[in-house]
Amino acid sequence: MCCEACFQVGLSESVRLVAHLYSLRNDANVAGQARFGIVSQAEQLGLAMPVLRALARSHRRDHALALELWDSGIHDARILATLVENPKQITRGQMEQWVRAADNWALTDALAFLIDRTEFAEEKALAWSERKGEFVKRAGFATMAGMAIHRKELPDDVFRRFLPVIAREATDERNFVKKAVNWALRQIGKRNPALRCAAIAEAKRIATLDSRAARWIAADALRELKSV
């Protein structure tokens, strides 16, 4: 791709941004990301999250741009799309399309941190938690974790409803699922003292399950929540 040509007058902002992403390509970072499990079937350019966040700042809440960036099919551009999308304009159908295309934890978590700000957040978190696909299921629990972090206005009952779902899926041995289940449990417990008590009680119940994943989830959550 010719970056200079892409900056000609009349070309769309998404084309300019994608050209700029290509100009920042770092193949060493692609290899480094792979060592941390960030591997996509899409083209990867190796851009770090701070770089993508900096690019997103001047394009916040741009729904049309987000759609075009996602449609580029480039892993890094898709993460950028989650950062510039307007949570008030994203649709249920779009959420489903995007989550099915997320094939690594970095893109999945970036998407979850967009979804957790939408009016459909609880609905999607619960629905995705039941799916079979590893990254769709992870998205459900990453959305729960994101809601616990970002949605200060939500009542405790929302998060209490998540606890039995967390227990239900705590026996999933897949690495990216069990880590997200653990993440959701810990973040719920860190919201306030009442939810901390509820999360500790749930972790103790999870610890009794006949599953290595469940025992790890419970032990790690209890270690953190009891030290708060």
Write out key terms for the chains shown.
single chain; 228 residues; mainly alpha; Leucine-rich Repeat Variant; 2 domains; 68% helix; 0% strand; disordered N terminus
Description:
It is a single chain. Helices cover 68% and strands 0% of the residues. By secondary structure, it is mainly α. Helix 9 (121-129) runs antiparallel to helix 10 (134-150), helix 10 runs parallel beside helix 12 (175-189) and helix 12 (175-189) packs antiparallel against helix 13.
Q: What's the quick description here?
A:
By secondary structure, this protein is mainly α. The protein is 68% helix and 0% strand.
Number of helical segments with 4 or more residues: 14
| Gap from first CA to last CA | 51 Å
Strand content: under 5%
For the biggest sheet, the summary is: none
Topology at a glance:
Elements: H1 3-6, H2 13-23, H3 27-35, H4 49-56, H5 63-71, H6 75-84, H7 92-101, H8 105-115, H9 121-129, H10 134-150, H11 156-168, H12 175-189, H13 193-207, H14 212-225
